[in-house]
Design the sequence.
């Protein structure tokens, strides 16, 4: 277990370093960040002044080490647009994204897992067919479009929910519905296929044969093993919900991280964009690493394999 | 016991039948959309970018105020909506194919190398896959397009460089299982070159697997392009992209919700067609782990 843990953590650490270098390097994709900040109409002297002021004239490696060094102490630089620390701006916005992401994730799990189990118990039964329709449509409908249509129908026509903003909790209803609908298909499919595999095993057949009631067969024997692939996928999905809410936040005018990143891109506020990419990537690494460790705890067979 | 055996037998037959009808419906729908995209100049009644400010926001045919020349109405600049929808199919399919060519080439090559050679090659490539997966796709794509200058070429390059992971994961697994098969061992024994074994023997054996990934990824790319264009950092106006049309119609959704309903429906139909086709192929050719 200890060697599995240390190997896994080492990989996670290496990924973090690479990801940080990538999000740092992204800033230089435009060629010269000083010109990007000065704007296309900016004069050469302005760009030169910016280059010196932000230290862009130093070697790249030094700039990166400087940036990552400050990031480790919790300093992600200054926003060029607002001229306040990036951490302060992000701190104001991160709550909305986390709330939206976690609630949507929980809603998706609460719907997808029971539906997946029910579908697996009777493949091709009516529940399975409904589940299939939900999965197929959920994967085909673009979430930003579903959000807009929901605003038209429930916000404008029926006036049931506020059409934008998250000043009240009702503002979260539509975004959560849309985001969880996006996450449900894959979670449900993996629960269903995991359950079907497990239900065909000898130990489940033995449990049935000894006369154990079906709900106990499922909860004591089947679900524990079917849940293993679900844990990994759930971590991936939660990461995607947190980072993928960028489009939904802009549709519903929610002031979260995604919208902040988009606005910052439009006003060339690169330090903010870098910081958000870094934070979301690290969050993803942490989530997937935790899922791997959790899986190893749940399934002793995995510890030897890795 | 009797119940158990019928339960076990039913899914496979049903799944295959359902898969085939799905593939049939999806394939037909996809073929229709591809034909529409190919013959767009012949089918479109108007120039998709020609503006007529005297005929702005005309409604589609089911409204009273509609005019027969503009079957599906006009947008806020008086451009014919049907023509824009028809040309929009070209953008979605074109970006889908372009990205798949780039991402497929990268992902399949990396997956083949990692799966066939194993060892440190596999370690390095697997690490690259893990790193790629932890990057937030939409955000990185937005940033890259914004900084690299929004154009169709940038969009295709950026998405191609970002979306190779599933190709790599799947070909890696397939190459791992093929590597120990007898015919490959035999080829090695007679001294066939590595390049020949990899690209002329192993690769053709994965055709079915790769086809399934292609369909999954095309759907993914089409949705991403729409989302990026919707956010204003994908396809540039006045090119008629369905995502861009939804974004342009957004200001008028209060009184003219059909402006977003139509391109959205087109997107759903296309993605549905690709997914049904892909799912059907997966069922017919055997399971693929994502």
Sequence:
């Amino acid at each position: 277990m200890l060697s599995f843990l240390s190997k896994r953590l080492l990989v996670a650490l290496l990924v973090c370093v690479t990801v940080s270098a990538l999000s740092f390097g992204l800033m230089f994709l435009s060629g010269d960040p000083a010109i990007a900040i000065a704007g296309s109409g900016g004069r050469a002297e302005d760009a030169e002044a910016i280059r010196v002021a932000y230290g862009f004239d130093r070697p790249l490696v030094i700039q990166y080490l400087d940036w990552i060094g400050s990031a480790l102490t919790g300093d992600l630089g200054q926003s060029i647009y607002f001229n306040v620390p990036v951490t302060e701006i992000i701190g104001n916005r991160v709550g909305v994204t986390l709330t939206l992401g976690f609630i949507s994730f929980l809603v998706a799990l609460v719907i997808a897992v029971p539906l997946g189990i029910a579908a697996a118990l009777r493949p091709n039964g009516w529940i399975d067919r409904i589940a299939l329709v939900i999965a197929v449509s959920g994967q085909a409908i673009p979430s930003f479009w579903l959000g807009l249509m929901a605003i038209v129908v429930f916000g404008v026509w029926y006036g049931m929910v506020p059409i934008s903003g998250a000043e009240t909790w009702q503002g979260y209803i539509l975004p959560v519905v849309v985001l969880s609908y996006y996450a449900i298909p894959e979670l449900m499919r993996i629960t269903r296929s995991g359950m079907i595999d497990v239900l065909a095993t000898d130990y489940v057949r033995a449990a049935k044969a000894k006369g154990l009631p079906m709900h106990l067969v499922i909860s004591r024997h089947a679900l524990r093993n079917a849940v293993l692939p679900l844990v990994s996928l759930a971590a991936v999905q939660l990461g995607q919900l947190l980072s993928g809410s960028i489009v939904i936040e802009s549709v519903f005018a929610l002031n979260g991280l995604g919208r902040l990143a988009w606005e910052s891109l439009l006003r060339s506020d690169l330090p903010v964009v870098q910081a958000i990419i870094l934070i979301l990537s690290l969050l993803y690494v942490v989530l997937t690493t935790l899922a791997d460790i959790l899986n190893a705890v749940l399934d002793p067979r995995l510890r030897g394999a890795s | 016991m009797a119940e158990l055996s019928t339960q076990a037998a039913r899914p496979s037959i049903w799944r295959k039948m359902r898969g085939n009808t799905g593939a049939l419906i999806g394939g037909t729908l996809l073929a229709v959309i591809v034909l529409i995209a190919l013959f767009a100049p012949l089918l479109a009644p108007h120039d998709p970018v020609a503006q007529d400010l005297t005929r702005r926001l005309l409604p589609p045919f089911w409204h009273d105020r509609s005019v027969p020349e503009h079957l599906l109405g006009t947008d806020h600049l008086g451009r014919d909506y049907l023509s824009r929808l028809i040309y929009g199919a070209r953008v979605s399919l074109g970006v889908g194919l372009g990205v798949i060519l780039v991402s497929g080439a990268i992902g399949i090559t990396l997956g083949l190398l990692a799966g066939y050679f194993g060892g440190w090659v596999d370690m390095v490539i697997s690490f690259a896959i893990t790193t790629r997966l932890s990057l937030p796709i939409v955000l990185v794509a937005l940033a890259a397009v914004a900084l690299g200058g929004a154009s169709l070429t940038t969009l295709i390059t950026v998405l191609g460089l970002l979306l190779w992971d599933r190709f790599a994961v799947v070909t890696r697994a397939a190459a791992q299982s093929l590597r120990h098969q007898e015919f490959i061992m035999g080829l090695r024994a007679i001294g066939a070159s590595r390049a020949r074994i990899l690209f002329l023997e192993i690769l053709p054996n994965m055709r079915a697997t790769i086809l399934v990934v292609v369909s999954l990824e095309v759907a993914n790319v089409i949705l991403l392009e729409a989302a990026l264009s919707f956010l204003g950092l994908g396809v540039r106006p006045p090119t008629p992209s369905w995502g861009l049309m939804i974004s342009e119609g957004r200001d008028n959704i209060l009184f003219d919700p059909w402006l977003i309903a139509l391109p959205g429906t087109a997107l759903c139909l296309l993605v549905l067609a690709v997914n049904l086709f892909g799912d059907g192929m997966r069922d017919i050719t055997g399971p693929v782990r994502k």
Observations:
- Residues 175 and 181 of chain B are 10 Å apart (CA to CA).
